[in-house]
Amino acid sequence: EKMHIGCVGLVGKENDPLLLRVYKDSLAVDGLTNWTSENDEGILRYHYIIYCSLDMVEERHKQPGQNVVPTTTKVSMYLGYLCPFEEFHVYGYVSNTHIKIIVAVEEQVGTGTAQPELQKFCKEVHQLYANQLQNPFVAIGQRVTSQKFQEELDKLVKGFNARNSSA
Amino acid sequence: LPTMSKGASRTGEQAWAKVPKVNGEFFALTYGAMVTQLVRDFEDVDEVNKQLEKMGYNIGIRLIDEFLAKSGINGACQNHREVADVIAKVAFKMFLGVVADVTNWNAEKNSFCLVLYENPLTEFVELPTEMTGLVYSNIICGTIRGALEMLQIRAECRFIRDTLKGDEVNEIQVNIIEVMEEQMGDDYNDNS
């Protein structure tokens, strides 16, 4: 039953990286600023996870500019399970403004268990993103640098990991 | 004195209940858009602070009549203490939906502080590191100064603690410089 969020990525409309938070060994690390391709190979993996998952996201969700036939069915922002990556299951969520939230979860069981909680988690991350966007000094499309966002996200992940750490 | 404060709180709540409301997020975003535009226009943080204070002043001189008409306050304040309580418990409540605490009276009783635990202007605001000199909510200081001036009270207001700069609370210091003599017509002289 053990589940552990390994990383949370935020990707923008043009598939530009907005945030990458890596959770390893009870530490939270910023994967965008504290990283160069020379040093830690550990962080590179997480970049790759996000990168690979974007293909799956594109399959499920039409990017702006593509020909979309409008449907009357309600499309959820939560995409669910996207793909596996070594010990991770990668889940995705796309907002109506084409902001993608990618979550890599280390799971020992099947992909069904995490779903409801992850859907709630993604919605909460989306809310945090919306909150930091209300800071008038933040430009649209820029990387998320808000201290508050980071703290709140770390708290959410910590809570998720703590609730799902019983072996 | 404690009963005056309680009476002011009740008056504040009643006034707040009666006034039309606006969505808090819309309000904060509007104010934020205005501040960032000022920053872009003036580029200098000190100048922006001055502009915000001036805008506040222009709001205050107009707002005071609305306040006196709608707040349910009867009669003039008898002393500086009442002025402080009315600002903190009635005015802040009626216009911003929050109450302030009155603290730090000086010995001469002409200077006090207003402590704000919540500020609807700054709910999601984080100041960028290059703008730590910006007094984001300076419009409030100008508003108090303008309103008091229409009541013949000349005062200075400034932020001495600011949550956007890492302080626990917001604190505005109000220094009453002088109470200008009321110009009364001869008809009102007792010895006429």
**Helix proportion of chain B:** 40-55%
Structural class of chain A: alpha+beta
Uncertain runs of chain B: none
In whole angstroms, how far apart are the ends of chain B? Answer: 36 Å
What is the topology, as strand order, of the major beta sheet of chain A? 3-2-1-6-5-4
Cα shape of chain B: globular
| Unreliable parts of chain A | none
Order of helices and strands of chain B: HHHHEEHEE
Characterise the protein shown here.
The complex is a heterodimer of chains A (167) and B (192). Chain A contains three helices and six strands, in the order βββαβββαα. A six-stranded antiparallel beta sheet of chain A has the order 3-2-1-6-5-4, sandwiched between helices. In chain A, strand 5 and strand 6 form a beta hairpin. In chain A, helix 2 packs antiparallel against helix 3. The longest helix of chain A is centred in the first third of the chain and has 20 residues. The N and C termini of chain A lie close together (6 Å). Chain B is of the alpha+beta class and 192 residues long. Chain B is globular and about 45 Å long. Classes of the chains: A alpha+beta (167), B alpha+beta (192). Chains A and B meet through loops of A and helix 2 of B.
Features:
heterodimer; A: 167 residues; alpha+beta; six-stranded antiparallel sheet; 6 strands; globular; B: 192 residues; four-stranded antiparallel sheet; 5 helices
Task: Give me a quick take on this structure.
The complex is a heterodimer of chains A (167) and B (192). By secondary structure, chain A is an alpha+beta fold.
Please outline the helices and strands.
The complex is a heterodimer of chains A (167) and B (192).
Chain A (H helix, E strand, L loop, with lengths): L2 E9 L5 E8 L2 E4 L10 H20 L17 E8 L2 E7 L5 E8 L7 H19 L13 H17 L4
Antiparallel strand pairs in A: 1-2, 1-6, 2-3, 4-5, 5-6
Chain B lengths: L1 H17 L5 H19 L2 H26 L9 H17 L3 E4 L7 E6 L21 H13 L2 E9 L8 E10 L13
Antiparallel strand pairs in B: 1-2, 2-4, 3-4
